[in-house]
């Protein structure tokens, strides 16, 4: 594809193909100027415009439909990316892309928050000395100290939108304030007001630059509100009435609360716009997400964990360390290039432990391809099941094979695990 030939009449749109009976789930197609995304779908994370240790050919080969890059990490290169025709052309990916606003990365400097944090992590956050935090929220954005240069920096909705519109992904995220589990209700009310104000600024600035690179760039509003139903519902109604092209579902919350939070948001949001669940990719998160109306997902976990030897398979995840003498493939019947080429667990373990940089890089590529393909395939299979009205059967089979228990038993265990702490 040349840099000036776009698909879908250069426009962004979304169509729903099938709805799940009695639930918010659906299968659909997101049309973007750089191609279609068949949903539910997982987007591979390429923070700097490439997935680490993988080529664009690798990514296409494993069935990736879209790549998510980071607005904050690419901010200094954004003029060069704009001159190169936008992210898809500049990176050589030439397919749908999404950027996040950078708010999460900057806020992470402040409190070390994760997406779904455990109560253990929460204690560390509460005990952290505020003076050691590198980021501070103001009414107009976030002041922070760049961890690499030590320089004082500022990013707000205006800056984030200008950066994202230069990078030129097909889908952008509004700039938001992510709260942590340690923040109470009152703080969440205050933070949500800022996020809603910033949503309006994001929309205004984005609309000025929407066609700057010659194709339509879409903007998703981001929903926060912690674990409180009234906040989640009110912000979904408020942002839902604004002219966003889709919605990002964000926040730090306990894993067991994911389903309710998505339900509160998605019951209020307009049905005809796509929704992206930010930063989650565990099979159970994907199942809960799909059932409650999330269309797309992203997470660094599949490739990051692959590089650390944690491998996904239909029979559950495992660590390569345990397979010194094993002729088994990573997963029997897997259609990823690594399994198709016949790499055994013991061979990959040997590469993982190698001191040779090139061997290790090859291991990173092979393991990343497998874990990413696992996650992509899970979404493909869930989509096929949804289209054929057999999502619950598919999830039940998967659960019995992956978690070694029924889906209901797994959910009950999750509830018990989170409330014990
Ligand atoms: Zn495989």
Automatic annotation (TrEMBL):
Xref: SUPFAM superfamilies: tRNA-guanine transglycosylase
Database matches in InterPro entries: ArchSynthase1/Queuine_TRR, TGT, TGT-like_sf, tRNA_ribo_trans-like
Keywords: Glycosyltransferase, Queuosine biosynthesis, Transferase, tRNA processing
Biological process per Gene Ontology, one example term: tRNA queuosine(34) biosynthetic process
GO molecular function: tRNA-guanosine(34) queuine transglycosylase activity
Keyword Glycosyltransferase applies: yes
Highest taxon above the source species: Bacteria
GO cellular component term, pick one: cytoplasm
Domain tRNA-guanine(15) transglycosylase-like: 25-403
Identification of the protein by name: tRNA-guanine(34) transglycosylase
Species of origin: Ileibacterium valens
């Amino acid at each position: 594809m040349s840099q000036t030939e776009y698909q879908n009449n250069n426009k962004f749109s979304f169509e729903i193909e099938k709805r799940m009976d009695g639930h918010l789930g659906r299968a659909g197609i997101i049309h973007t100027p750089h191609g279609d995304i068949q949903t539910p779908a997982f987007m591979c994370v390429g923070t700097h415009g490439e997935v680490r240790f993988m080529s664009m050919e690798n990514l296409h080969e494993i069935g990736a439909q879209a790549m998510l890059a980071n607005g904050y990490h690419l901010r200094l290169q954004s003029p060069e990316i704009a001159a190169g025709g936008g992210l898809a052309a500049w990176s050589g990916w030439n397919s749908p892309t999404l950027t996040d606003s950078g708010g999460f990365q900057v806020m992470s400097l402040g409190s070390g928050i994760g997406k779904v944090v455990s109560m253990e992590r929460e204690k560390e956050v509460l005990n952290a000395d505020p003076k050691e935090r590198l980021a501070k929220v103001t009414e107009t954005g976030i002041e922070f100290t760049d961890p690499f240069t030590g320089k004082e920096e500022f990013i707000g909705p205006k800056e984030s939108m200008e950066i994202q519109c230069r990078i030129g992904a097909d889908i952008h995220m509004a700039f938001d304030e992510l709260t942590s589990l340690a923040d109470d209700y009152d703080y969440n009310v205050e933070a949500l007001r800022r996020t809603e104000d910033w949503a309006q600024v994001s929309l205004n600035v984005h609309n000025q630059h929407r066609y700057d690179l010659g194709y339509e760039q879409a903007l998703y509003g981001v929903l926060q509100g912690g674990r409180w139903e009234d906040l989640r519902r009110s912000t979904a109604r408020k942002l839902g009435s604004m002219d966003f092209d889709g919605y990002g579902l964000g926040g730090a919350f306990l894993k067991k609360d994911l389903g309710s939070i998505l339900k509160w948001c998605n019951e209020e949001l307009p049905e005809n716009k796509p929704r992206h669940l930010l930063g989650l990719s565990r099979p159970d998160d994907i199942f809960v997400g799909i059932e409650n109306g999330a269309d797309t997902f992203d997470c660094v976990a599949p490739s990051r964990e692959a590089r650390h030897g944690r491998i996904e398979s239909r029979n559950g995840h495992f660590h390569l360390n345990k397979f010194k003498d094993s002729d088994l493939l990573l997963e029997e019947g897997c259609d990823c290039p690594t399994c198709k080429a016949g790499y055994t667990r013991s061979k990959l373990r040997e590469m993982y432990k190698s001191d040779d940089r090139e061997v290790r890089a090859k291991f990173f590529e092979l393991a990343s391809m497998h874990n990413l393909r696992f996650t992509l395939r899970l979404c493909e299979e869930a989509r096929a099941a949804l289209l054929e009205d057999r999502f619950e059967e598919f999830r039940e089979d998967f659960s019995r094979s992956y978690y070694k228990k029924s889906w209901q038993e797994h959910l009950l265990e999750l509830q018990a695990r989170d409330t014990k702490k």
